[in-house]
């Protein structure tokens, strides 16, 4: 176990929208340390979202992220030789990071040609409450609901 709690690292806001949440998302999106490339992908995806939906791209992305973030999740816990899936609330910081990871993972699995198109399509779908990332959240919530009986084993 850790001796002390890890320090929270704050990220700088991004250059275009001045939003630290965008920077955090781009850091998750980034491959091989290519931050500039990741920023270009995100900004082009926002432009595509604006063209397709006639709404603000970043606002649509934030709405999509809200729709993807889970409120409850299950954690495995061993009790007397058996492993139970115990539902627990997700802390705010983890909600954001898990939502971003799901959005990016399911973006990468899409069939469009470029990463910008994939991200734009997944953001639009998630903002509408559709798409694979939203389905993952719903499945997680269903799993927590079905294991509600074991919530008395909570940590």
- Strand numbers in spatial order across the main sheet: 1-2
The outline comes out as globular
Helix count equals 6
DSSP strand tally:
2
* The CATH top-level class label: Mainly Alpha
CATH fold name: Ribosomal Protein S7
Radius of gyration based on Cα positions:
18 Å
Helix content: 55-70%
Oligomeric form: single chain
Structural class comes to mainly alpha
In the CATH hierarchy, what is the superfamily?
A: Ribosomal protein S7/S5
- What fraction of residues sit in β-strands? 5-15%
Judging by the overall fold, what is the CATH architecture? Orthogonal Bundle
Largest sheet: 2 strands, antiparallel
Instruction: Give the low-pLDDT segments.
Output: none
The ordered H/E elements are HHHEEHHH
How many structural domains can be distinguished in the coordinates? 1
Q: What is the straight-line distance between the termini?
A: 16 Å
Characterization of the model:
With 155 residues, the chain is mainly alpha-helical. It has a single domain (20-153), classed as Ribosomal Protein S7 (Orthogonal Bundle), CATH 1.10.455. The chain is 56% helix and 10% strand. It has six helices and two strands. It has helices at 20-29, 35-53, 57-68, 92-108, 115-128, 132-146, and strands at 72-79, 82-89. The protein has a two-stranded antiparallel sheet. A hairpin with a 2-residue loop joins strand 1 and strand 2 (82-89). Helix 2 crosses helix 3 (57-68) and helix 4 crosses helix 6 (132-146). The longest helix is centred in the first third of the chain and has 19 residues, at 35-53. The model has no long low-confidence stretch (mean pLDDT 92).
